[in-house]
Design brief:
There is one protein chain. Strands 4-3-2-1-10-11 form a 6-stranded mixed β-sheet. Strands 5-6-7-9-8 form a 5-stranded mixed β-sheet. The chain contains 8 helices and 11 strands. By secondary structure, it is an alpha/beta fold. It starts with 5 loop residues before the first strand and ends in a 5-residue tail after the last strand. The radius of gyration is 18 Å and the shape is globular. It binds manganese (II) ion.
């Protein structure tokens, strides 16, 4: 990497949750992080679910996030490319992030070369075996007619409805995660490897053996697994409880934590 700069990866901030007031605290911490890393950032990859819910209405922007959006726009204006892999909570970003914030949008998993090394990058939702329920709902949410129907709802009704829905899935996930943590599953490498995303990565790796790194968001647990001698797997984690992120300096990917001063 030129002049000792790094590529930064961050994901699953879920801003707006659980309440606007509580989210603001995390937004402030994220802005501090952005400003701290900017001088050494070659590029920034945001791997999805920046917002707990986002919808691009034609003439209305979801209220809030003013300082955050300004800080992100300032980053892209300063010439640092910000890549965005759309998440499942903000799959209804159509133009706003691109046009207003200057993000480079990615809507599908992609293989990219970073400093000559092959990275497989995706938010991670709906990949790997199982989770048929979500895969069905994703089709419903991606349907253009359904999106048009949702747009007809006044945002004062539509946004709280979507937040309620999103909150329910979040609490279900939190409950499952705390059970898995208590059962010690997160210390069990074999258990982690058998989860859908690592299984998906192993499957892709069989077809494309020269991938060096898999980088995913979505699963809100910071995970680092060695898939083979030459290939590593990372879940970034989240910006809710872990404040975790990754850096790549051209030779190694490192998992890090930001120590918020709450
Ligand atoms: Mn998420």
């Amino acid at each position: 990497m030129q002049n000792g700069k790094k590529i930064f990866f961050n994901s699953d901030q879920h801003f707006g949750a659980p309440t606007a007031k509580e989210s603001k605290v995390r937004e402030r911490i994220f802005i501090e992080w952005l400003e701290h890393i900017a001088p050494e950032a070659e590029e920034i990859y945001l791997m999805g679910d920046l917002f707990d819910f986002w919808f691009d209405y034609k003439a209305v922007v979801p209220k809030g996030y003013t300082l955050l959006l300004g800080a992100l726009a300032r980053i892209t204006l300063s010439g640092i490319p910000v890549h965005y892999y759309r998440g499942n909570h903000d799959m209804w970003t159509f133009y706003y992030f691109e046009e207003e914030l200057g993000f480079i949008m990615h809507r599908q998993p992609e293989i990219v070369l970073l400093d000559g090394k092959k990275f497989y990058m995706a938010h991670g939702d709906g990949l790997g075996p199982g989770d048929r329920g979500y895969k069905f709902i994703k089709k419903v949410f991606e349907n253009k007619i359904n999106q048009w129907l949702f747009r007809q709802l006044h945002p004062d009704w539509g946004i709280p409805l979507a937040r309620f829905w999103s909150g329910r899935s979040r609490y279900a996930n939190l409950e499952r995660e705390s059970r898995e943590r208590e059962d010690g599953k997160y210390d069990d490498q074999q258990w982690l490897l058998n989860e859908p995303l690592p299984q998906y990565a192993l499957h892709i790796l069989q077809q494309i053996p020269d991938i060096r790194y898999f980088i995913f968001g979505h699963w809100h647990l910071p995970v680092a697994l060695q898939l083979t001698d030459n290939c590593s797997y990372f879940n970034i984690g989240d910006w809710i409880t872990h404040f975790s992120y990754l850096t790549f300096d051209g030779s190694v990917v490192e998992a890090k934590r930001w120590k918020p001063d709450i």
